[in-house]
Amino acid sequence: METNKIISSLCYFSIFFAGFLLPIAVYFIVQDQEVREHAKKAFISHLIPFITIIFFVLPMFVMGSMEAAVGGMLIFFALFSLISFIVVIWNVVKGIQVLAK
């Protein structure tokens, strides 16, 4: 199996063990353009759950009542869980696709 494919797929699979570190390291260390592109896509996909935190938590501070904040947090938790699950599945699928290419 080609080393570039393994490194590219590890960038996607790193959502389980290295988060942001592996895609960033691969992007700056490896010179192959295809591997760098996969590392960039993996890094962006790892950022998506954290970006959703910003968009969902900030409005909680603006809400006036405690009941609205609690309800908002329950909705946020459900949406965050769904988005995180989708991102994990997407990374696994992309990692397998890169290996199968």
Automatic annotation (TrEMBL):
Matching entries from Pfam families are given as: MamF_MmsF
Coiled coil: which residue ranges?
none
The record describes its membrane topology as: Multi-pass membrane protein
In terms of superkingdom, the source organism counts as: Bacteria
Give the stretches traversing the membrane: 6-30, 42-62, 68-93
For this UniProt record, the keywords arranged alphabetically read as follows:
Membrane, Transmembrane, Transmembrane helix
Keyword Protease on entry: no
Localization in the cell: Membrane
Q: Does the keyword Ion transport apply?
A: no
In the UniProt record, the signal sequence range is none
Location (main, coarse): membrane
Q: What is this protein called?
A: DUF4870 domain-containing protein
Organism field? Litchfieldia luteola
